[in-house]
Amino acid sequence: MTPGARLSAAMELLDPILAGEPAERVLTRWARGSRFAGSKDRAAVRDLVFDGLRRRRSLGWLGGGDTGRAIGLALAAAEGSLDRLCTGDGYDPDPPTPAERARLIGDLARAPEGVRLDFPDFLGPALHAALGADFGEVLEAMRHRAPVDLRVNTLRTNADAATVVLARDGIRVASQPLAGHALRVLENPRAVAASRAYSQGMVELQDVSSQYVAETAGAEPGMTVLDYCAGGGGKTLALAAAMKGRGRLMAWDANPRRMADLPDRARRAGAEVLILSERDHAALGPVCDLVLVDAPCSGTGAWRRKPEGKWRLTPEEVASYPPLQDAILDEAATRARPGGLLTYATCSLLRAENEERAEAFAARHPGWLVLGDRRLSPVDGGDGFYMARFRAPEGTPAPRS
Ligand SMILES: C[S@@+](CC[C@H](N)C(=O)[O-])C[C@H]1O[C@@H](n2cnc3c(N)ncnc32)[C@H](O)[C@@H]1O
C-alpha cells in the first residue's frame, strides 16, 4: 500500500470507531478483508488510527469535524505530508477543499483547553486537582504514543544477558531507572513479540510504572502473596520475580476469563502461580503476608495505550469506580494476616480513585497503618499510576461479614 492508501484506510476505519465500535474489532475486520495489506501496512494503518484517537479532539478541531477524514487530514498536515498524501490519485485521499485547507492552518493555541490537550471537558476540574503543576505536561504526554518497556524476568536471566539476546534480534534497549529491572526499547519495538528473548521468557512487555508498583508492593521471597485483581497476570509474574520463586503466590480475579492466559505466561516465565477458583477464594482466610489490589478504574493513567478509553468514559462510569474500589479493598483486606501488607493500586490519575480511596480505607479501618503512597505519571517515565500501602493490625483479625 502507498502511504496515501494507508491514510485513506485509517480515515475509513476511524469512522466506525468514532461511532462507538471497538478499535481492535474494526482493525481486525479490516485486516481480514484486506489480503493486499502486508504486515507493515497493517502496522502503519494501526498506528495512524491510534494516533488519530489519541488526538481526536485537537485533530478534529483542525480538520473541521469529528470524522475520520477530518482527523486524517489534520494528522497528515501536522506531519507536513498533506499535499504528498492527499492527491486524489489511486487510493490516496482526495485533496483538501479550500474550506478544509483554511481550517487546517488554524491556531490550536486558541482552542479551548480540552481541545488543545485532548481530554473530555467533564474531567478537566478533577485532572487539574490531581495533577496540579504537572497538568500540562501529563496531558500533553497522553497525546502521544507510549514508549515500549520490558521487564527483565529475573527468574530466567539478568539485564545484561537479556540486552545481548534482544540485540541479536535487532532490538536495542536502555535501562529505565524508575524500576529496577526495566528496559526501554529504543529501536524495533515491533520485533519484541517474535523475539527469542520474549519467547524464552527472558523479558515481559510491561510499562515501567506497572513494574514499579509490583516491585514496591512489598513481596519478598518466602511470603504468601495474593494478587487480588490479577487480570492477565502482568503484575502476578512481576511479584513471582520479586519473590525469587520462593513462597506461595496466588492469583484471583472476579472475572476468571481474564486469567485465561496466565498458566501459559507463568510457564514461559518459570513462575509458579496458584490460580484460585471461586471456592478457593471464598475459603481463603486471613493468611496472606501481602495482598495486592490492582483495582478496576477509569484507566485515565493509561490513555496513551488505550486512547479510546479517553472518549468512552462518562461521568456516570467515573462515579461508579470509588464504591467498587472500596468494596474490593475491604474484601481483599480480609485475606491479609494480622500484621500483613495490603497494597492498593490503580492506573487512574484521579484523586477520587486514588488518595481519596486510601484515606477512606484508613478511616474505615482505624487499626491499619498507612505506610505511604505514591502517584506516578509520564513525568516519572511511565503510565499514570497510584499506589498506597497499608499494614494490618497485629492480633486477631475481625471476622468476615
Ligand atoms: C486493572 S485490572 C488488573 C490488571 C492486572 N493486575 C495486570 O497487571 O495486568 C482490574 C481487574 O480487576 C478485576 N475485578 C473487577 N472486580 C473485581 C472484584 N470484585 N474482585 C476481584 N477482581 C475484580 C477485573 O476483572 C480486572 O481484571
Automatic annotation (TrEMBL):
Family, as annotated: Belongs to the class I-like SAM-binding methyltransferase superfamily. RsmB/NOP family.
Keywords, sorted A to Z: Methyltransferase, RNA-binding, S-adenosyl-L-methionine, Transferase
Residue ranges constituting the SAM-dependent MTase RsmB/NOP-type domain according to the UniProt record: 138-401
Name of the molecule in the record: RsmB/NOP family class I SAM-dependent RNA methyltransferase
One Gene Ontology biological process: RNA methylation
Residues binding S-adenosyl-L-methionine: 253, 294
Phylogenetic lineage: Bacteria, Pseudomonadati, Pseudomonadota, Alphaproteobacteria, Rhodobacterales
InterPro entries named among the record's database cross-references: MeTrfase_RsmB-F_NOP2_cat, MeTrfase_RsmB-F_NOP2_dom, RCMT, RsmB-like_ferredoxin, SAM-dependent_MTases_sf
A GO molecular-function descriptor: RNA binding
Residue positions of the active site: 347
SUPFAM superfamilies per the UniProt record, alphabetical: S-adenosyl-L-methionine-dependent methyltransferases
